[in-house]
Amino acid sequence: MLIKIDFDSGEAIYVQLCNQIIMGIATRQLSDGDSLPSVRQLADMIGVNMHTVNKAYAILREQGFLTLDRRRGAVVYVDKEKMKALEELRDDLRIALAKASCKRVTRQEVHELIDQMYFEADEEIQ
Predict the structure, then answer these.
(1) What is the rounded end-to-end Cα distance, in angstroms, of the chain?
(2) Sequence-ordered list of residues with C-beta below 8 angstroms from that of 69, at least 6 positions apart, any chain
(3) Cβ pair 14, 55 in contact under 8 A
């Protein structure tokens, strides 16, 4: 799987990295049990700080997309129920994004809306 970072994007690098790995899983470029490069290797490959990759891996572990093994490093973990939910969400979002595009809603506006919705959901939980 090729990871491309847009250094000119307003989106944080660790977020781009997380999203690309999740998309790699969703598109089956990455499968359950696949080992990812070490933090150092991936940081060198894409030209970012090791802490950035470490943060992305930690977030992906918290979200249930990776396990961290001392011997194998970061390993793709596919929870079948989560993958089904992710595929359904992707289908729903594809339609919602097409509608938004027709109304000239920008990518930045979509990201801001999603961030706001996550923030509101976190507030409701607490």
Answers:
(1) 38
(2) 75
(3) yes
Which residues of the chain fall short of a pLDDT of 50?
Answer: none
- Is 7 inside any structural domain? no
Residues 27, 53: one domain? yes
Per the domain annotation, does 36 fall within a domain?
Answer: yes
Q: What is the pLDDT of residues 104-117, one digit of tens each?
A: 999 999 999 999 98
The dihedral sign for the CA sequence 68, 72, 75, 77: negative
